[in-house]
Every structure is written in C-alpha cells, then in structure tokens.
Amino acid sequence: MNIEAININNYTKIMFYIWIIGALYLAIKSIYKQIIFHSKIQNITYIVTDEVIIKSLQEQKKALNIKRDINVFKVDGLSSPALIGIIKNRIIIPIAQI
Question: Is the separation of the CB atoms in 57 and 38 below 8 Å?
C-alpha cells in the first residue's frame, strides 16, 4: 500500500468517528430536551372537557381508523398544539386556542 491510500483511509475513519460523535450528541440533546419539556408540561395540563373538541377528535379518529385512546389536554404558556407521547399519546392545545 502506498502512503496516500493509508492517509485517505485514516481521514475516512476520523471523519466517521466525528460524524458518530456528532450524531450521538444531537440524539442525546434531543432526548434531554424532550424529557425536560414533558416534565414541565405534565404539571400544568388540564383535561379538555369541551364536547365540541372531544366529538371532533372522535370523528377524526374514526375517519383515520385509529383505535388507540388519545387524551386531549389544555395548557397555558404554549404557542401551538402538539402531540406528545409514544405509548400514551396526548394532544395538548394552548388555552388561548380553545
């Protein structure tokens, strides 16, 4: 093997390790932010009792053939609706939009 082939191989390995470290950093950072967000939201949510919203959700679930139970919560301090949870799905809606 010549020296150039070894150098290119070493640079490729170094770039691969840098990419792996960056990907792991971004994944850990994203998971951390999701955990913080979930813990903050958990203490300030209130279940929605508005029949119009609940009926609309039931109609959409039926149209999309969704069998899973999805709860709708209202929260103050959020600017847009969001879907959170992987196993226990929840829709959170800002109080200003209700």
Answer: no
